[in-house]
Specification:
The chain folds into 2 domains: about 220 residues, Alpha-Beta Complex (Spore Coat Polysaccharide Biosynthesis Protein SpsA, Chain A); about 90 residues, UDP N-Acetylglucosamine Acyltransferase, domain 1 (3 Solenoid), CATH 2.160.10.10. The protein is of the alpha/beta class. The strands form 7 sheets. Strands 5-4-1-6-11-8-12 form a 7-stranded mixed β-sheet, sandwiched between helices. It has a 5-stranded parallel β-sheet with strand order 15-18-21-24-26, with helices on one face. A 5-stranded parallel β-sheet has the order 16-19-22-25-27, with no helix packed on it. About 20% of the residues lie in helices and about 30% in strands.
């Protein structure tokens, strides 16, 4: 089985952090978003992955090649023309059953079970208000009849969560080519949902599989929510003399903590330094510095520095703030 991971997005809703870092490499509960996906694929036995890259592509390429043994292919999407276009660019690698996962989505589900399904399938999660999501409508036999993108009157509560198992690549590849050849766009972009709809209308059966947990890390608020949820399953943090570390939290071995209270729900990455601070519900990225602060619901970017008083901060990489 192969995998395709689109990671070309600029992450505009995550600025200032994505000015200098791809959103898929943002730290959540102790490791980058992309690492959750790649660790799952490695455990599943996937050996070959195609990454559709664009903005800050060299950082993604270096991260993957330095840390993982996959046969990795990197295909550029230089213009943001939609997720359907991204998969179209990778179509030559659709040669066997292929798992497609969006790079900014962390999912907790049984991927091995999804890989054994007899038909191509879409990961779905029931939501109380589906109007902000892609939604699937099922027929009487439980197969997908139609896919809707943010419908004002949703036909179901099954939201599409950004993970797809393509069992028969040939009809899917043909659908992608029709999508582009016929210029089927919405708001100027080609959507994967439209390619899948073409495939269904051509007679291909498409089923669904449940995704128990789903974290779309598209905004700073969403990243902090994912950090909160995922920290629930990490090992207890190490004790640090002179400081209090409250679980659940993740403190990297190379982080320096002095005279501080960390947690609950705090991630402190490699090389960060926290002195005389109280921090909760926050992410302190690599080599950042926090001193004399009461900090909550905040993200401090790599090499950022903040000192002063109680605040809520969203500080980008290599920035510095002093509050007095």
């Amino acid at each position: 089985m192969n995998a395709i991971i689109p990671v070309a997005g600029r992450g505009k809703r995550l600025r200032p952090h994505t000015h200098t870092q791809p959103k898929v490499l943002m730290n959540v509960a102790g490791k980058p978003i992309l690492a959750y996906i790649l660790d799952d694929l490695r455990d599943l036995g996937v050996e070959e992955i195609t990454f559709v890259v664009g903005y800050l592509a060299e950082q993604v390429e270096q991260y993957v090649t330095d840390r993982y043994p996959f046969r990795a292919h990197f295909i550029r999407q230089d213009e943001p023309m939609g997720n359907g276009h991204a998969i179209y660019l990778a179509r030559e690698h659709l040669t066997r059953p292929t798992l497609i996962i969006f790079g900014d989505t962390i999912v907790r589900t049984d991927l091995a079970r999804a890989a054994r399904l007899p038909h191509s399938a879409i990961g779905v999660h029931r939501v109380p208000d589906p109007r902000a999501f892609g939604v699937v409508e099922l027929d009487g036999d439980g197969f997908v009849r139609r896919l809707w993108e943010k419908p004002p009157v949703p036909p179901s509560d099954l939201a599409v969560v950004g993970i797809y198992m393509i069992q028969r690549p040939a009809p899917f590849r043909a659908a992608l080519e029709r999508l582009i050849d016929e210029q089927r766009t919405a708001n100027g972009e080609f959507w994967l949902a439209d390619a899948l709809q073409i495939m269904v209308e051509g007679g291909e059966r498409l089923q669904t599989f449940p995704v128990e947990q789903w974290y779309d890390c598209g905004t700073s608020e969403a990243v902090l929510r994912a950090n909160h949820a995922l920290l629930e399953s990490v090992p207890p943090p190490r004790a640090i003399e002179g400081s209090v570390i409250i679980a659940p939290s993740s403190v990297a071995d190379t982080a320096v903590i002095e005279g501080s209270v960390i947690g609950p729900y705090v991630t402190v990455a490699d090389g960060a330094r926290v002195v005389n601070a109280v921090i909760r519900e926050s992410i302190i990225n690599a080599n950042a510095r926090v001193e004399s602060m009461l900090l909550e619901h905040s993200i401090i970017g790599e090499n950022g520095a903040v000192t002063g008083r109680r605040a809520r901060i969203n500080l980008g990489d290599s920035s510095e703030v002093e509050l007095s």
